[in-house]
Amino acid sequence: MMKTPHFLFPLLLAAVCSLSSCGASKDHHIPARQRVPPAALSAIDVSKPYQIRSREYGTETTVTIKGNYRLIKTNGLPNHATGVFPNEGNPNSISAQNREYAIPLKPVFTGQPKWAREPGVAVNGVKFEPETAERFVCESGEVYRIEAVQDLLDMGLDYNHAHVQPTGAYHYHGVPTELVNLLDKGQDLILVGYAKDGFPIYYSKSGKYKPSYKLSAEPRTGDVCTYSNPKTHITKDLNNSRPDGTFVSDWEYVAGLGDLDECNGIEINGSYAYFITDEYPYVSRCLKGVFEEEHHPPRPGAGPPGQHPHRPAHGHHH
Fold first, then answer.
1. Nearest Cα residue to 80 out of 113, 107, 56
2. At residue 136, what are phi and psi to the nearest 5 degrees?
3. Left if phi > 0, otherwise alpha if psi is -120 to 50, otherwise beta: which for 111?
4. CB 308 within 8 A of CB 142
5. Which residues of 64-91 are buried (b: 16+ CB within 10 A; e: fewer)?
6. Is the confidence at residue 245, as pLDDT, over 60?
7. In DSSP terms, which residues pair with 226 in a beta bridge?
8. What is the pLDDT of residues 185-226, one digit of tens each?
9. pLDDT given at position 265
10. Is the CB of residue 238 less than 8 Å from the CB of residue 144?
11. What is the pLDDT of residue 97?
12. What spatial distance separates the first Cα and last Cα of the chain, rounded to whole Å?
């Protein structure tokens, strides 16, 4: 069984204040009907221009439409309750960011999966970044990327399956529970964000669409594998150990096993969409449309979904 991230304190009722009550200046790009006071973020049509400003949480997110793009300008602060940060598994504090996204309004589907470190952004301006920078490195050459949701290492995830980077950026690794609650209009499918290629990201409350990943049956390899951070040092021999979901490479994609493809996407009524799911991979690890890649150095062991990139090219080495 995979461990559910611990609850750090009881959930609080999140609210987004209206633009008028926040003292915002009039923005002619935001339709009047989008300036609603949500006890209901669900009252906003997030497919159109809108603005979220929260006095309680400090959220500042503005979405406009210009040409062929949906422009998102945000400080990346969530508009809902979070866990306590810093915490035992995460030493970082949430702080405002300065992010802008240009999401295509007319996405181009290529059908070819391409790995994406940050596959998309939620409607409140918080990014999705499903994988982590943590890894085990083995003397025999293997590099194992550690999943955020696993039993070996406490990464301080809160009940939104989120935590905080050293930069102060709060980000989701799975279902953003409190955001889903705010967006819920009573229907099964909830539009929670947009992928960087322009396709929508949904969550199904009923879990209607199932992922197509399973734990690999192939034993791991690796001698004297170590993980270190300022508080923790772990050494393990991974040779012949059974995949249990701790590492990205413990999982493999099996076409047709579930409803969703290797990027956790599916075509619905003639339109492609991605899904956030309660089961692995939780958030898309790749995109199937054209998108502008982030300029980050590749992480060790990064590779196509469903592969085992940690393993040396020519077998087991010492």
1. 56
2. -95, 135
3. left
4. no
5. beeeeebbbebebbbbbbbbebebebbe
6. yes
7. 137, 235
8. 999 999 999 999 999 999 999 999 999 999 999 999 999 999
9. 98
10. yes
11. 98
12. 33
Instruction: Tally Cβ neighbours within 10 Å of residue 45.
Output: 13
Q: What percent of the chain has pLDDT over 70?
A: 80
Phi, psi of 33 (to 5 degrees): -70, -10
Amino acid at 1: M
Residue 260, token pair as written in the block:
């969703």
The tokens describing 17, both together, are: 């204040």
43 is written with which tokens?
Answer: 């009252």
